[in-house]
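> Could you send the Nucleoside diphosphate kinase prediction when you get a chance?

Sure thing. Input:
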Amino acid sequence: MSATAERSLVLVKPDGVARGLVGEVVSRLEAKGLRLVAAELRTLTAEVAETHYAEHQGKPFFAGLVEFITGGPLLALVVEGPRAIEAFRALAGATDPVKAAPGTIRGDLALEVGENIVHGSDSPESAAREIALFFPNL
Ligand code: RTP
Ligand code: MG
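Output:
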Protein backbone atom coordinates (compact mmCIF):
# COMPACT_ATOMS: atom_id res chain seq x y z
CA MET A 1 0.00 0.00 0.00
CA SER A 2 1.39 3.43 -0.91
CA ALA A 3 1.85 6.04 1.80
CA THR A 4 -1.26 7.94 0.75
CA ALA A 5 -3.52 4.90 0.32
CA GLU A 6 -6.11 3.82 2.85
CA ARG A 7 -8.18 0.65 3.16
CA SER A 8 -11.88 0.19 3.92
CA LEU A 9 -14.10 -2.82 4.53
CA VAL A 10 -17.05 -2.83 2.14
CA LEU A 11 -19.93 -5.28 2.35
CA VAL A 12 -22.51 -5.98 -0.33
CA LYS A 13 -25.17 -6.99 2.17
CA PRO A 14 -27.46 -10.03 1.72
CA ASP A 15 -30.17 -7.89 0.06
CA GLY A 16 -27.66 -6.65 -2.52
CA VAL A 17 -26.40 -10.16 -3.27
CA ALA A 18 -29.97 -11.54 -3.48
CA ARG A 19 -30.99 -8.74 -5.86
CA GLY A 20 -28.03 -9.34 -8.15
CA LEU A 21 -26.39 -6.00 -7.40
CA VAL A 22 -22.83 -7.25 -6.76
CA GLY A 23 -21.70 -6.27 -10.25
CA GLU A 24 -23.34 -2.84 -9.97
CA VAL A 25 -21.62 -2.07 -6.65
CA VAL A 26 -18.20 -3.39 -7.71
CA SER A 27 -18.50 -1.56 -11.01
CA ARG A 28 -19.20 1.74 -9.25
CA LEU A 29 -16.32 1.47 -6.78
CA GLU A 30 -13.87 0.34 -9.47
CA ALA A 31 -15.00 3.15 -11.76
CA LYS A 32 -14.33 5.58 -8.90
CA GLY A 33 -10.75 4.31 -8.77
CA LEU A 34 -10.85 2.13 -5.67
CA ARG A 35 -8.82 -1.05 -6.01
CA LEU A 36 -9.98 -4.48 -4.83
CA VAL A 37 -7.60 -6.04 -2.31
CA ALA A 38 -9.74 -8.96 -1.04
CA ALA A 39 -13.15 -10.46 -1.77
CA GLU A 40 -15.10 -13.29 -0.21
CA LEU A 41 -18.72 -14.47 -0.42
CA ARG A 42 -19.79 -15.73 2.99
CA THR A 43 -22.74 -16.10 5.35
CA LEU A 44 -22.03 -14.51 8.72
CA THR A 45 -22.55 -16.23 12.05
CA ALA A 46 -24.46 -14.25 14.68
CA GLU A 47 -21.19 -13.95 16.61
CA VAL A 48 -19.33 -12.26 13.75
CA ALA A 49 -22.35 -10.04 12.98
CA GLU A 50 -22.63 -8.92 16.62
CA THR A 51 -18.90 -8.17 16.73
CA HIS A 52 -19.02 -6.25 13.45
CA TYR A 53 -21.98 -4.13 14.64
CA ALA A 54 -20.90 -3.99 18.34
CA GLU A 55 -21.35 -0.19 18.41
CA HIS A 56 -25.11 -0.71 17.90
CA GLN A 57 -25.61 -3.27 20.68
CA GLY A 58 -28.59 -2.25 22.84
CA LYS A 59 -30.29 -0.17 20.12
CA PRO A 60 -33.88 -1.08 19.14
CA PHE A 61 -32.88 -2.15 15.62
CA PHE A 62 -29.94 -4.35 16.73
CA ALA A 63 -31.69 -7.75 16.74
CA GLY A 64 -33.26 -7.10 13.33
CA LEU A 65 -29.93 -5.90 11.96
CA VAL A 66 -28.16 -9.10 13.06
CA GLU A 67 -30.98 -11.25 11.68
CA PHE A 68 -30.83 -9.43 8.35
CA ILE A 69 -27.04 -9.45 7.95
CA THR A 70 -26.85 -13.19 8.78
CA GLY A 71 -29.85 -14.05 6.57
CA GLY A 72 -27.93 -14.99 3.43
CA PRO A 73 -24.56 -14.72 1.76
CA LEU A 74 -22.88 -11.33 1.59
CA LEU A 75 -19.82 -10.20 -0.33
CA ALA A 76 -17.03 -8.89 1.89
CA LEU A 77 -14.48 -6.68 0.15
CA VAL A 78 -11.40 -4.75 1.13
CA VAL A 79 -10.87 -1.74 -1.09
CA GLU A 80 -7.87 0.54 -1.25
CA GLY A 81 -7.19 4.03 -2.50
CA PRO A 82 -6.62 7.63 -1.40
CA ARG A 83 -9.21 8.41 1.32
CA ALA A 84 -10.93 5.10 0.53
CA ILE A 85 -13.13 5.27 3.65
CA GLU A 86 -14.65 8.65 2.84
CA ALA A 87 -14.71 7.87 -0.89
CA PHE A 88 -16.80 4.73 -0.45
CA ARG A 89 -19.15 6.33 2.11
CA ALA A 90 -19.81 9.06 -0.49
CA LEU A 91 -20.57 6.43 -3.15
CA ALA A 92 -22.91 4.59 -0.72
CA GLY A 93 -24.97 7.62 0.30
CA ALA A 94 -26.92 8.28 3.49
CA THR A 95 -27.97 5.38 5.75
CA ASP A 96 -31.67 5.99 5.00
CA PRO A 97 -32.00 5.31 1.26
CA VAL A 98 -34.95 7.69 0.91
CA LYS A 99 -32.69 10.51 2.13
CA ALA A 100 -29.65 9.30 0.17
CA ALA A 101 -28.88 11.51 -2.82
CA PRO A 102 -29.73 10.22 -6.28
CA GLY A 103 -26.49 9.09 -7.89
CA THR A 104 -25.42 7.18 -4.79
CA ILE A 105 -25.78 3.41 -4.43
CA ARG A 106 -28.46 3.68 -1.74
CA GLY A 107 -30.11 6.70 -3.37
CA ASP A 108 -30.45 4.93 -6.68
CA LEU A 109 -31.14 1.36 -5.63
CA ALA A 110 -32.83 1.12 -2.21
CA LEU A 111 -35.86 2.30 -0.25
CA GLU A 112 -35.59 0.87 3.27
CA VAL A 113 -33.07 1.69 6.02
CA GLY A 114 -32.88 -1.97 7.00
CA GLU A 115 -32.11 -3.07 3.44
CA ASN A 116 -29.60 -0.51 2.23
CA ILE A 117 -27.37 -2.78 0.09
CA VAL A 118 -23.91 -1.82 1.28
CA HIS A 119 -21.74 -1.22 4.31
CA GLY A 120 -18.58 0.85 4.40
CA SER A 121 -16.23 1.43 7.34
CA ASP A 122 -16.82 4.84 8.93
CA SER A 123 -13.32 5.68 10.30
CA PRO A 124 -9.73 4.43 10.15
CA GLU A 125 -10.23 2.74 13.54
CA SER A 126 -13.41 0.97 12.33
CA ALA A 127 -11.69 -0.06 9.11
CA ALA A 128 -8.76 -1.63 10.97
CA ARG A 129 -11.10 -3.49 13.34
CA GLU A 130 -13.46 -4.67 10.59
CA ILE A 131 -10.70 -5.75 8.18
CA ALA A 132 -9.08 -7.78 11.00
CA LEU A 133 -12.46 -9.39 11.76
CA PHE A 134 -13.24 -10.39 8.16
CA PHE A 135 -9.75 -10.96 6.78
CA PRO A 136 -7.42 -11.82 9.69
CA ASN A 137 -4.66 -12.90 7.31
CA LEU A 138 -4.54 -9.66 5.36
P1 RTP B 1 -23.50 0.44 7.81
O1 RTP B 1 -22.78 0.45 9.16
O2 RTP B 1 -24.34 -0.77 7.61
O3 RTP B 1 -22.55 0.73 6.72
O4 RTP B 1 -24.51 1.67 7.76
P2 RTP B 1 -24.28 3.16 8.26
O5 RTP B 1 -22.89 3.32 8.81
O6 RTP B 1 -24.73 4.06 7.18
O7 RTP B 1 -25.33 3.24 9.44
P3 RTP B 1 -25.16 2.81 10.98
O8 RTP B 1 -25.62 3.94 11.81
O9 RTP B 1 -23.81 2.25 11.25
O10 RTP B 1 -26.26 1.66 11.12
C1 RTP B 1 -25.97 0.33 10.77
C2 RTP B 1 -27.15 -0.25 10.04
O11 RTP B 1 -28.22 -0.40 10.97
C3 RTP B 1 -29.44 -0.19 10.30
N1 RTP B 1 -30.17 0.87 10.96
N2 RTP B 1 -31.45 0.82 11.17
N3 RTP B 1 -34.09 1.43 11.97
C4 RTP B 1 -33.13 2.32 12.18
O12 RTP B 1 -33.33 3.39 12.66
C5 RTP B 1 -31.77 1.97 11.78
N4 RTP B 1 -30.71 2.70 11.96
C6 RTP B 1 -29.67 2.01 11.43
C7 RTP B 1 -29.16 0.20 8.88
O13 RTP B 1 -29.34 -0.94 8.06
C8 RTP B 1 -27.70 0.62 8.91
O14 RTP B 1 -27.05 0.39 7.69
MG1 MG C 1 -22.05 2.04 10.21
